[in-house]
Amino acid sequence: MKPRKLLQKALAKPAALKFREACRLVEAYGYRLDRISGSHHIYEHPQTNRPLNFQNVRGMAKAYQVRQLLRDVEEFNLTLEE
Question: Is the CA virtual torsion 4, 80, 22, 68 positive or negative?
Answer without folding.
Answer: negative
